[in-house]
Design brief:
Layout: H1 2-26, E1 49-53, H2 60-76, E2 79-82, H3 90-102, E3 107-110, H4 119-127, E4 131-135, E5 146-149, H5 153-168, E6 172-178, H6 184-200, E7 204-211, H7 216-229, E8 233-238, H8 241-252, E9 261-264, H9 268-276, E10 282-285, H10 288-304, E11 314-316, E12 322-324, E13 330-332, E14 337-340
Helix pairs in contact: 1-2, 2-10, 3-4, 5-6, 7-8
Bound molecules: alpha-L-rhamnopyranose.
Alpha-L-rhamnopyranose is lined by residues 55, 59, 61, 111, 136-137, 179, 185, 214, 240-242, 265.
Length: 349
């Protein structure tokens, strides 16, 4: 099953690498990590301005999305900034949403830390004329114009389920090391994962879900306590790039190396050393840079009035090609891709 995912996704991944090289050059100096200040009011003068608000700053996954979004903004002739909290909380995001609305930003690209808690702020921004595009982690559909979805939950559940099953011989105890407890994306993926594993692998038991809050140290500590309190544990699945890298770091230096399997969602650059030292044999992801690219082009199409976010609307996202808005204002990037020792050298993000 993994094989077919690789085959299906290979074209997407290769395109993504080519696009990333170009975008990486264009990004110099465009990021404004955390300042929150900007030459506001750009939209009022008729110019297009795009603000990227990730779950938190300092995560290489969102840094890659910023590279894609800022290159797309440049292509659109839009002014671009990234702002955000250091901790992945909804409260931390609200002040940035309010500021974007007050500044009359044309569009806000948001990876939501909670499906509902930032909705009032987002709807106030929309009332003030700012288009809201969620990406990576959605809100409730009535507080954004579009959601740019990296891959569907069933596909993410299946790739992680098949990977861990293969790595533990289809039997034994497995635990999930997740991101924050309110994250829309991980919660949907975990629910789908448990359902998929229960249906497909009756001898695997998902015994616990713990939360590292997308903080490196907390994820590291949670891995240690999972292993200590579950001596029979055969595998850990971490559907977060922060969690997977932290868990790999812990396991690589512990007795669990070679005994407890680890997989999930990770970036090739963070996972390379753990693939090379044998801690991890395979993991999955999409290209987060492409996700940022697609979100920014979608925002540009909304601001220009080319689309309204209705099902069937189509727009072009630069080199990524044409996309169609699906039901509930969702635009799908593609399928997850599996990374292993044979292909990880081809990727640099
Ligand atoms: C972390 C974040 C992000 C998620 C990835 C897989 O970087 O939680 O939201 O999509 O992992």
């Amino acid at each position: 099953m993994t094989f077919s995912l690789k085959r299906v996704s290979a074209g997407i991944a290769v395109t993504a690498v080519a696009a990333m090289t170009l975008a990486g050059c264009a990004d110099t100096g465009s990021g404004d990590s955390g300042s929150g200040s900007d030459d506001g009011g750009a939209a009022a003068s008729g110019d297009v301005s795009i603000t990227l608000l990730p779950k938190n700053l300092g995560n290489p996954y969102f840094d890659a999305s910023e590279v894609g979004a800022s290159a797309a903004a440049e292509d659109l002739g839009a002014e671009f900034e990234q702002v955000g909290p250091t901790e992945a909380t909804p409260d931390g995001q609200v002040s940035y949403i309010n500021t974007a609305a007050q500044q009359g930003r044309s569009a806000l690209l948001v990876a939501a830390n909670d499906p509902n808690a930032i909705c009032d702020a987002l709807n106030e921004a929309r009332d003030a004329g700012t288009k809201v595009v969620t990406f990576d982690s959605d809100t409730s559909a009535d507080c954004r114009d579009l959601f740019i979805n990296q891959a569907d939950a069933a596909g993410i559940a299946k790739v992680q389920g098949d990977l861990i099953a293969e790595q533990i011989g289809e039997e034994g105890e497995v635990a999930i090391l997740s991101a924050t407890a309110n994250a829309t994306n991980q919660n949907a993926w975990n629910e789908a994962f448990i359902e998929y594993v229960n249906e497909t692998y009756p001898d695997i038991e998902v015994i616990d879900t713990v939360y590292g809050d997308d903080e490196d140290q907390k994820s590291f500590d949670q891995t240690a306590s999972l292993l200590q309190s579950n001596p029979e544990l055969k595998g850990i699945v971490s559907p977060t790039t922060v969690g997977l890298a932290a868990a790999a770091r812990y396991i690589s230096d512990s007795d669990a190396k070679g005994e407890v399997a680890l997989t999930g969602l990770g970036t090739p650059n963070q996972m390379r050393e753990f693939i090379e030292d044998g801690t991890v044999t395979a993991f999955a992801l999409w290209n987060p840079e492409d996700l940022g690219t697609l979100a920014a082009y979608a925002a540009g199409a909304l601001v220009a009035g080319d689309i309204e976010g209705a099902e069937g609307d189509t727009f072009t996202a630069g080199d990524l090609g044409e996309f169609t808005v699906g039901a509930d204002g969702v635009v799908l990037l593609g399928d997850p891709f599996v990374f292993d020792a044979d292909n990880i050298g081809d990727f640099d993000f």
